[in-house]
Design goal:
- By secondary structure, this protein is an alpha/beta fold.
- The chain is built from 14 helices and eleven strands.
- It has a five-stranded parallel β-sheet. It has a two-stranded antiparallel sheet with strand order 3-4. A two-stranded antiparallel ribbon has the order 6-7.
- A hairpin with an 8-residue loop joins strand 6 and strand 7.
- The relative contact order is 0.10.
């Protein structure tokens, strides 16, 4: 949990002093700012993102392997590019290997290349992806999907930086730095026998765990403003402002697809907004607006805090706190129906479908 040491009774002050000095020196060195990262692609200021940028800066200053994990759409490829662009290898290529399409039968020829005549159809010498990364960075995207047999071959290359192309008579050297990314839990994959443990440790000298968008708070608004501006320029339309209700709706959604989903939603909203200068919630997908409506009425049953064993006594008579029940019911019902019709965009059949109410009701 980050603890340096613990106290033992009876307390001996001399060892305590020594431990405190060592701990302070360690944490001051650890917190020393690394070389600043040159980037303009990572948007946000949430502490969890800042911690990832700090680790990326430390990784960029070395040749150690980097493992980037996180949900789909959190920006793993952006971070791989960031590490490469700020490293001593930036003048060489960043070569991406899509491990999801790397079948066991094609892996050897794609990774290691082949010589003319190595197999039927090999009519010329062809360099593999690894040699293309010589002097640069080899990015293994979705490394958790790599076939188990290919993992064994790749492990040897990572250990020795030597390999033999198919049909070649001798091995060749290759100087590359490896960055890997995955949305899988590799420890779980190891437990299930689908990922080699020794390969995991070879890939993870530095680990960067990217936070999900729903855990980044106000970064959602910053990202939305940034990408809305970019999308407007790409679509050839004037810049649009985000109305407060539009921003609030974005902030209350869980974003299972993370930043990638946010960009797609914004693009759709901009196309639907036509000549409006301001973006309103009505141009957002229905599931976003419904989620905002649900949260505006308070937490659902699954989100309620555990009940206290005894209710707290009110500080004032109950009549001074709550309105009469019928008045409260009318106000609440009116607010619900107004938001329901907004979500249904004025269409009564759709409102009935969402609410479960009959048309007569």
């Amino acid at each position: 949990s980050g603890a340096w040491d613990y106290l033992r009774k009876p307390l001996d002050f001399a060892p305590l002093q020594l431990n405190l000095r060592r701990a302070l020196a360690y944490y001051q060195a650890k917190r020393a700012d690394p070389a600043p990262l040159g980037h303009n692609t990572i948007i946000g200021s949430h502490p969890s993102l800042m911690a990832c940028l700090t680790t990326a800066a430390q990784a960029a200053a070395t040749n150690g392997a980097v493992l980037i994990t996180g949900e789909s759409g959190t920006g793993k490829e952006l971070f791989a590019q960031l590490v490469h662009d700020n490293s001593g290898r930036q003048k060489k290529a960043l070569v991406t290997v899509d491990c999801t399409n790397l079948t066991a039968t094609l892996a050897a020829s794609l990774l290691f290349g082949y010589r003319r005549g190595a197999f039927t159809g090999a009519d010329r010498n062809t360099d593999g992806l690894i040699i293309q990364a010589d002097g640069g960075t080899l990015f293994l995207d979705e490394v958790g999907d790599l076939p188990i047999n290919t993992q064994r071959s790749l492990l040897r290359v990572l250990q020795t930086h030597r390999f033999r192309p198919l049909g070649a008579s001798a091995e060749i050297d290759c100087n590359f730095r490896v960055v890997a990314a995955t949305n899988r839990d590799l420890m779980d994959e190891i437990a299930k026998g689908r990922f080699r443990e020794v390969l995991y440790y070879r890939l993870s000298a530095f680990q960067i765990r990217l936070p999900a968008l729903r855990a980044r708070g106000a970064d959602v608004r910053l990202l939305a403003e940034h990408y809305a501006g970019e999308l407007c320029r790409g679509l050839g339309i004037g810049k649009k402002k985000m109305g407060p209700e539009f921003s609030d709706t974005l902030m209350t959604y869980d974003w299972p697809g993370n930043v990638r989903e946010l960009i797609n939603v914004l693009q759709s909203a901009l196309v639907q907004s036509l000549d409006d200068d301001v973006l309103y919630p009505q141009v957002l997908p229905l599931e976003l607006r419904l989620r905002h409506l649900q949260r505006s009425f308070g937490p659902g049953d699954s989100e309620k805090a555990p009940a206290e064993p005894f209710p707290k006594a009110p500080e004032a008579p109950i009549g001074d706190i709550l309105p009469p029940y019928q008045q409260f019911r009318r106000q609440t019902e009116r607010r619900y129906l107004q938001q329901l019709m907004a979500a249904a965009r004025g269409r009564i059949p759709r409102a009935c479908e969402i609410s479960g109410l009959s048309r007569a009701r």
